[in-house]
Amino acid sequence: MSVVALSILLIKLWQFYMPAPEGTRAVRRSLALWHQGQADEAIAQLNTRQTVPAVLLLAMRGKRSGTNQELLREELERVASFRLNQLKLLLRPLEVIANLAPLLGLLGTVLGMIVAFQNMEAAGSRVDPSVLSGGIWQALLTTAVGLAVAIPVVAVHSWMERRVERIAASLNDAVTQVFTHQPKSSVSSGKVANAA
Question: Which of 39, 45, 182, 194 has the smallest set of CB atoms within 10 Å of its CB?
């Protein structure tokens, strides 16, 4: 279980840090350009390798091309859900390992205690306390190993889940800004058209 957990941890660290899913700097620059009415420059700041920039790119392109808002929102929801599910991939096995490791440790302890007491019963009146304590020591070792695996896995799992939640919030915020803030150029051109 520790080998599987470590493998998943390495995969997830690569997934979270090689192309950082948030793309915070690119998103900030892109949204600033979008608010200034520079849609082409805003779109040029984004890439499809990172989760938030990829969905934001789709939102900006759809908004700029005048795609039906309902269809665009549905497509954005579909793509965002797919991207977030990719980030959540393998988190469930980590949770299972975190739950099972201490239970397997306890199972090992119980089985070890059973063997220790069977040996004590077989020895009859010639019980040597060192034999009994040696068996108990070995039995308790499995619980310690189970906890040693479970504790870091629980911490890593919680951290990764929180990271996915932050990415989802960042994604929601960025896309909402595209829909709620009109670029300056389109606002001013609308005012000129109304004045005419």
Answer: 194
At 155-177, the pLDDT tens digits run 999 999 999 999 999 999 999 99
Angle at 22 between CA 10 and CA 187, to 5 degrees: 170
**pLDDT surpasses 60 at 193:** no
Write down the domain spans for the chain.
7-184
Confidence band, pLDDT 50/70/90 cuts, at residue 96: very high
pLDDT digits (tens, 9 = 90+) for 182-191: 665 444 444 4
Q: Token pair for residue 104?
A: 């397997």
What pTM does this model have? 0.76
How buried is residue 19: exposed, middle or buried, by Cβ count under 10 Å (0-12/13-18/19+)? Answer: middle
Q: What is the distance of C-alpha 166 from the center of its chain?
A: 9
